[in-house]
């Protein structure tokens, strides 16, 4: 993806304000931002594309993917628990299992929403610098043309 879609990613970065500011946040943020983005409500397939087109080092991507596994496992747990509950009891008390499911859903939702709003706040803060850099690039391009 990195080699095939880098040009497309750069084109989107120049034409789409949201994508451009997110790419800027990713480039400047490092490992901490990569982990937070993986926990946000931004779909994982989109974050993988953004990470690869922004030139994120593989080790940062790998660490962020491994650290964000609990979010993915929570989703899988809830799905399995709901499925097993519809066919037969899983051996646990169904009331206890229900409380665990609700707790997992609540924690996952809170972490997802908080991380999304944090990333959104960083994107809003990066917007003026992104717009300024785009404006300077357009001015330089206009001065090049005879």
Automatic annotation (TrEMBL):
Write one Pfam family the protein is assigned to. Answer: VTT_dom
- List residues traversing the bilayer: 58-80, 100-119
- Family statement drawn from the similarity comment of this UniProt entry: Belongs to the TVP38/TMEM64 family.
GO cellular component, alphabetical, reads: endomembrane system
- Mode of membrane association: Multi-pass membrane protein
Domain VTT, first and last residues per copy: 20-79
Q: Which UniProt keywords apply?
A: Golgi apparatus, Membrane, Transmembrane, Transmembrane helix
Query: What is the name of this protein?
Result: Golgi apparatus membrane protein TVP38
Cell location: Golgi apparatus membrane
Indicate where this protein is primarily found. Golgi
């Amino acid at each position: 993806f990195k080699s095939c879609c880098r040009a497309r990613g750069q084109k989107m970065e120049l034409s789409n304000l949201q994508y451009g500011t997110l790419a800027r946040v990713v480039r400047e943020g490092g490992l901490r931002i990569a982990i937070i983005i993986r926990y946000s409500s931004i779909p994982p397939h989109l974050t993988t594309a953004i990470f690869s087109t922004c030139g994120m080092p593989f080790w940062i991507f790998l660490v962020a993917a491994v650290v964000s596994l609990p979010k993915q496992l929570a989703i899988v747990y809830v799905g399995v628990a709901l499925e097993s509950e519809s066919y037969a009891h899983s051996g646990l008390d169904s009331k206890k299992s229900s409380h665990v499911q609700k707790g997992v859903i609540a924690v996952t939702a809170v972490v997802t929403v908080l991380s999304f709003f944090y990333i959104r706040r960083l994107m809003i803060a990066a917007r003026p610098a992104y717009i300024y850099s785009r404006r300077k690039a357009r001015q330089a391009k206009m001065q090049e043309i005879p």
